[in-house]
């Protein structure tokens, strides 16, 4: 993983969490882009932003994370990026829905520290062998 700075887009409507995760990923040499709304994230990607990984919260003002994921899948962006849901929704139905819509992984915020989230994302990148 050390030979490339992976580009990550973090989407969360909670500014505190957005800043905290952005800092943690920057400290791990990720190129970080942030969006506080799903619509803004979609616009950035449509405008040419090509993140290797999208960290996506679910509970946001419309469009929520599931809707963002649906749009990214429909518009074929998921072929070029890995989407990891990072949310406090931990019900089996929510997790199943996230995977069904194309998420590569599903992380429940309450179960992981921000540093553990970064480690988990690195593991997912290694496992998926994201293209450079």
Automatic annotation (TrEMBL):
Gene3D superfamilies: 3.40.50.2300
Gene Ontology BP, a term: phosphorelay signal transduction system
Keyword Ribonucleoprotein part of the UniProt annotation: no
Source organism: Candidatus Niyogibacteria bacterium CG10_big_fil_rev_8_21_14_0_10_42_19
InterPro entries documented for this protein: Bact_response_regulator, CheY-like_superfamily, Sig_transdc_resp-reg_receiver
4-aspartylphosphate: modified positions: 57
PROSITE patterns: RESPONSE_REGULATORY (PS50110)
Response regulatory domain boundaries: 7-125
Name assigned to this protein: Response regulator
Pfam families: Response_reg (PF00072)
């Amino acid at each position: 993983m050390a030979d490339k700075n992976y580009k990550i887009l973090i989407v969360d409507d909670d500014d505190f969490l957005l800043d905290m995760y952005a800092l943690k990923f920057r400290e791990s040499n990720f190129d970080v882009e942030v969006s506080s709304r799903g619509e803004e994230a979609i616009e950035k990607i449509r405008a040419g932003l090509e993140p290797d990984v999208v960290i996506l919260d679910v509970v946001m003002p419309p469009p929520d994370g599931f809707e963002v994921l649906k749009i990214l899948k429909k518009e074929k962006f998921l072929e070029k990026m890995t989407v990891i849901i990072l949310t406090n929704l931990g019900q089996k139905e929510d997790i199943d829905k996230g995977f069904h819509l194309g998420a590569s992984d599903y992380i429940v915020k309450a179960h992981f520290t921000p540093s553990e989230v970064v480690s988990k994302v690195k593991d997912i990148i290694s496992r998926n062998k994201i293209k450079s």
